[in-house]
Amino acid sequence: MKTVYTCFCTDVIHEGHLNIIREAQKRGRVIVGALSDRVLIRYNKFPTVSQEERVRLYRGIEGVEEVVIQDEAMYDDVITLIRPDYVVHGDNWKSGPEAAIREHVESLLKEYGGEVVDVPYTYNEKVRKIDMQLREKLAMPEYRRKRLRQLIGMTPVVKVMEAHSGLTGLIVEKTVVEHEGRLDQFDAMWVSSLCDSTAKGKPDIELVDMTSRFRTIDDIMEVTTKPIIFDGDTGGLAEHFVYTVRSLERMGVSSIIIEDKKGLKRNSLFGTEVEQTQAGIEEFCEKIAAGKKAQLTDDFMIIARIESLILEKGMEDAFERARAYVGAGADGIMIHSRKKDPAEILTFCDRFRAEDKKTPIVVVPTSFNVITEEELAAHGVNIVIYANQLTRSAFLSMQQTATDILKYHRAKEVDERLMSIKDIITLIDEL
Ligand code: SPV
Ligand code: MG
Hints:
45% of the residues lie in helices and 18% in strands. It is built from 19 helices and 17 strands. The protein has helices spanning 15-25, 37-43, 51-59, 76-82, 99-110, 125-139, 141-145, 147-154, 166-174, 193-199, 210-223, 238-251, 281-294, 315-327, 343-355, 373-378, 389-408, 412-415, 421-425, and strands at residues 3-8, 29-35, 64-70, 86-90, 115-119, 158-162, 176-179, 182-185, 188-191, 228-231, 255-259, 261-262, 277-278, 301-306, 332-335, 361-363, 383-386. The strands form 4 sheets. It has an 8-stranded parallel beta barrel with strand order 6-9-10-11-14-15-16-17, surrounded by 8 helices. The radius of gyration is 24 Å and the shape is globular. The chain binds sulfopyruvate and magnesium ion. Magnesium ion is lined by residues 192-194, 204, 231, 233.
């Protein structure tokens, strides 16, 4: 009896999957791999049911003899363990980032005479509807809101990318890469005050009001499913902050980060080049506590951002504040620095982790960009935010295009580096 292996990453079984099982059954006894949560969030969508439930679901399919957990996107381990004669998969993996996986599987099977079987992908109205329903579920406030906390427990480091519009939201939502045998994607979105203001041609001084900031969130939420961390600047007056918390929670935002500054807030990357005033520990703690008291769910996170290193108040001040903010109820600590060298960030993280094993640490490595996510995670960091890179890359290329069209009095010279008309009109999925 031959052995046939197929790997599933779905939360719902539809006729496409049953067709794969049927094709597999024709060739031998069928073993199904259930992609683990850890791999699934890098590879596909966030699961709407637990790993255990997925295993149970696959076990219940007629014709499935065994279900195993596949804990890597690449098949090396399962192929060594099972030595299947056939690996069956929908033919959609012949293109896109999954193509590298298919190629690798084929080469592993070749070593002992195994074979890849590509089954034509089933894509009809019913399947499309199931896909859409799953996506819509992930986008709903009650599901989206809790996802940041879930991610912190599921992955060594939550990767967050800036979004300030529907389009940038789509880029964060949909970009998946294959690199050195691994698939990867961002976990969440950061609605940056800098980029939200910049997109509106305004300075980052809490000038863009909350109603407008919420409008940005809504634009992003309409076309995405990933969780959102909102840059709440100083949080404003405590009396106003409580309303902001309620509104964000209701919308399905997962977290707000507020920074311990007061008065006219300037962007942190100015450092001490402009006048910026740090809030007193007590008053900032009161704001955190008021926010925590106002929130209605256990999902929402209020993260306190410490500006002591930015404002050159020293490490001791940063620690004192971290302790006090956690004591006041903060669900996480963001420590910021504008030094190129990550040393002071790492010193903070190591010391903080020695004292506090579980409060999540957030960093924004804009200046200290030499350090990798993995290295940061090794120092206890849980969330890494790429706060402004999409805005900075788009601005440069738009400015170059405008300059060149003015220079050449036509658009021919720039056309080659532009997205094609076909790509832009098909970029957005229609319902
Ligand atoms: C933002 O993105 O608006 C931030 C992070 O607050 S930083 O610009 O680094 O201060
Ligand atoms: Mg900001």
